[in-house]
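Q: What residues go here?
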């Protein structure tokens, strides 16, 4: 029996709306951080499910996703959790890159780093994420705006 795309796209649109709510300025709490990770992980799982189920057109599966990449510092420990991100990765040497949605999904679903990207005034701007496979190479950042747009765009793909 073929899998219908509508319920998956509905879930993805729900996650897009949740991200849109999180973009509104408010005090960040532990509960907000849990909700952020839950929303992003569920959204990326849904995208992966749509891609693997051939429920998205090729143009959507290959749509470039704008991200930032931050190189790993050579002197950094390879152990997780023993250093802040700024010590492990050069957050001042970020550059823009584009990857397909599946790359982003892999970073999120296989993450060993998932942290909020905050503005200087402590507002939520996006996420930092890297998979266990990529952690010795780079850290990736994506804005909440770009993530929300991706979720919304793929939820309306025909």
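A:
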């Amino acid at each position: 029996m073929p899998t219908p795309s509508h319920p998956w796209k509905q879930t993805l649109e729900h996650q897009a709306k949740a991200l849109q709510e999180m973009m509104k300025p408010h005090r960040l709490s532990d509960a907000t951080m849990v909700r952020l990770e839950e929303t992003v992980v569920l959204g990326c799982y849904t995208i992966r499910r749509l891609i693997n189920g051939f429920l998205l057109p090729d143009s959507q599966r290959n749509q470039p996703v704008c991200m930032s990449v931050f190189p790993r510092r050579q002197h950094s420990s390879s152990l997780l959790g023993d250093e802040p991100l700024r010590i492990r990765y050069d957050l001042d040497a970020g550059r823009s890159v584009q990857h397909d949605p599946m790359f982003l999904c892999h970073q999120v679903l296989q993450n060993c780093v998932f942290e909020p990207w905050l503005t200087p005034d402590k507002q939520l701007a996006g996420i930092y994420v890297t998979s266990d496979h990529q952690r010795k190479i780079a850290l990736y950042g994506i804005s909440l705006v770009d993530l929300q747009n991706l979720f919304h765009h793929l939820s309306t793909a025909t």
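A: Context that may help when evaluating the design: The longest strand covers residues 111-118. The two ends are 20 Å apart (CA to CA).
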